[in-house]
Automatic annotation (TrEMBL):
The keyword Transmembrane applies. Keywords: Membrane, Transmembrane, Transmembrane helix. The chain crosses the membrane at residues 12-30, 42-60, 80-98, 158-176. This is Uncharacterized protein.
Length: 233
């Protein structure tokens, strides 16, 4: 059993610890419709991430993957597989929340907070197993995750602002370590962090141009929740 556990990649153990941390955070939240929806959809998003990450080689190079041995296909994560998994899980999360009519500030902020809290044990474990300079990068990210969660508890820290700070933190800390496979000036992970920042800033700009505030959405969500509780009574 010990030999089998030693063969599990550190990244997957860190992901498991992150999932446990996120699950514990959700369990501590008030039991309401928002928590139930977010817990259900995040569980599905994690499953989608794992499946697409492991089998992304079929999507990237289907002719080569199908000719390879099946055990070789599932034995390791293909290069770039984690980003295929991230894209698939985020797409699943957005579509599933939209179909549930739950794509609002309350649920989105709870999603962001859950992921930030889950990142704390994830990066803490990575700091334990990684070597310098990646260990320092993980420690900084772990510390910033704690600070970001505390900031996210403020009413003015809407979901897209949490994502913007998270993207900036991940990008800034990524500059502390060397990167091998560069696409122009950055590697794939850094471009992903920049995309998160750009998307978050675009949402903020949209609110400014439309002349609306995310706070209006939060008030509406709270009103809907109160009406739902009143109907149940």
């Amino acid at each position: 059993m010990l030999a089998l556990l030693q063969r599990v990649p550190d990244a997957w153990i860190a992901l498991l610890l992150g999932c446990v941390g996120g699950w514990a955070f959700l369990k501590l939240q008030p039991k309401n419709r928002a928590r139930e929806i977010v817990a259900d959809k995040l569980s599905g998003a994690v499953l989608v991430f794992v499946v697409f990450t492991r089998f992304s080689g079929i999507l990237q190079q289907p002719s080569l993957s199908l000719r390879d041995n099946l055990m070789a296909l599932i034995g390791g994560t293909p290069p770039g597989g984690i980003f295929v998994g991230l894209a698939a899980s985020m797409l699943y999360l957005i579509i599933s929340l939209w179909r549930k009519k739950a794509l609002d500030q309350t649920k989105l902020k709870l999603v962001a907070q859950t992921l930030v809290v889950g990142a704390i044990p994830y990066f803490a474990y990575r700091a334990y197993v990684d070597l310098h300079p990646y260990r320092f990068e993980d420690l900084v990210r772990c510390g910033f995750a704690v600070i970001l969660y505390l900031l996210s508890r403020r009413a003015s820290m809407y979901a897209h602002r949490v994502w913007a700070v998270a993207g900036a933190t991940l990008f800034g800390t990524s500059l502390l370590v060397p990167h091998v496979e560069l696409y122009t000036v950055f590697d794939l992970s850094q471009w992903t962090f920049l995309l998160i920042m750009a998307a978050s800033i675009s949402v903020e700009a949209w609110y400014d141009v439309a002349g609306t505030s995310p706070a209006a959405g939060l008030v509406k969500d709270e009103h809907v929740q109160r009406e739902g509780k009143r109907d149940c009574l």
